[in-house]
What does this fold into?
Amino acid sequence: MRKIQVITLFPEMFTGVLGSSMMWKAQKEAVVEFSIINLRDFGIGPRQQVDDTPYGGGDGMLLKPEPLFAAVAKAKESDPEAIVILTTPRGQRWKQSLAKEWADDGQGLIFICGRYEGYDERIVSLVDQQVSVGDYVLTGGELPAMTIIDSIVRLIPGVLGGETSAEIESFSDGETLEFPQYTRPAEFQDMKVPKVLLNGHHGEIAKWRAQNSFKADQQ
Ligand code: SAM
It folds into this structure.
């Protein structure tokens, strides 16, 4: 079973996402085991401090190294070979081909969710991969971690319903976006489903779909 651990100051954020739909199914069918580690449990002193002001001055607080080192050590106790991933705008941009690679790879994953103004740079020495979900700044690494986890887990064999569902999706060949799709009714508020999709001719349907799949850079 694939083990995915997340180190976060906001464990409650994961309850809905990892407890619903495909992520719930993947756990129920023992394809994956999620474990959420509360960074606060590794905080220092009676106030369980996890952050401090930056050397050299500047706004905001940084995650301190000691609690994060302790939390990663704890996560590694149960999965010593796991890959450690830091969510950061400085990281490699996440994309479908990486999700596929990591889904196939089978290794355990430990996510570190940054917060505040970021983290003490020494944390990077614990990390195997730095990943960004895009060129914008979020309040914390939780949404990026959930995004990355969802995109990986749904590609682990047995999680998606139809065996081919993932192969025909957007970006599955690197750049093509999925063709437009329709369901019943054939006409809704004067908008009609393209006739070719109603005629049951598989060759014509495949041709129409190919013609209407867009390259990502054409959007
Ligand atoms: N001061 C940092 C900067 O300018 O790059 C931003 C810190 S952000 C408010 C807090 C944390 O959210 C980051 O340390 C990171 O873990 C996470 N985060 C924010 N945007 C992200 C993105 N685009 N991709 C991945 N993680 C992100």
Summary: DSSP finds six helices and eleven strands in the chain. Helices lie at 13-18, 21-28, 65-78, 96-105, 142-153, 202-211. The chain has two domains: 2-153, 168-219.
